# Entry
Amino acid sequence: MAFTTLINSETLTAHLADPAFAIVDCRFSLDDEQWGEREYVARHIPSAVYAHLDGDLSGIKTGRNGRHPLPDAAVLRHTLGRLGISSDIQVVAYDQDAGMYASRLWWLLRWLGHDAVAVLDGGFARWLAQGRPTSAGRETRAARTFIGSPLSGLFVGPDEVATLLGRRDWRLVDARAPERYRGDIEPIDNVAGHIPGAANHFFKWNLEEGGVFRSPEELGRRFREVLGDVPPEHVVCYCGSGVTACQNLLALEHAGLRGAKLYPGSWSEWSSDPSRAIAPDKKR
# Structure
């Protein structure tokens, strides 16, 4: 049985010594880019290897393609092979808690056609709270050959997004906090606001108070309030830089609402071009 959305701590514990499982630590902090790797070295889930958001799960920045552009497919294949992942491997990704960084690896693997990937529900925080085992230092897995090609239709670029503005049969969904969506504040990017017509579904709304994902039924109900009668295959998720939007995509998939797309460049790319419309309409 392949795990394709979420996996709980109990199930992962039973597979810690399973060579068919690759556990990948994706902890990261936007405020301190080396924090996650330091935390990994200090303690992590036994047998886990580390993947860095900037170094492993993002591509080269040009200043106009967002803060976390997609990596080149060939480079990503090499990275995944170095992490010991091949077509017969079940991948489990985790981060500190909410799945915002682990879901980026989840989406990248699915983009290359690898569906056997799941995010640890509750992340490392829940793992520790349950008193589960940890290891220290760096670990490696035997390198493998990862074979996979990008699947069409899983993401859209800025030009495609521009064609969707004002269309009632499509829905843009912004995963950022409401105050950033409204343009009240913008702590990271140079321009505040959102893409015109986008609805807001903060990625943390997918979680219960204990940090685990809501049930598929509850997720489905909440997303339907945002999407209305728009089918999931006409949904485009974005955020600040294409990371937390992947957590919304994971939640949609877990709810059985399949086919939504990612706008990888997200607000950091969209807002970098002064010719693109923003809402609310403010002078730049």
In short: Residues 6-129 form a domain with the Oxidized Rhodanese; domain 1 fold (CATH 3.40.250.10). Strands lie at 6-7, 21-25, 49-50, 90-94, 117-120, 171-174, 199-200, 235-238, 261-262. The two ends are 52 Å apart (CA to CA). Residues 199 and 235 are 11 Å apart (CA to CA).
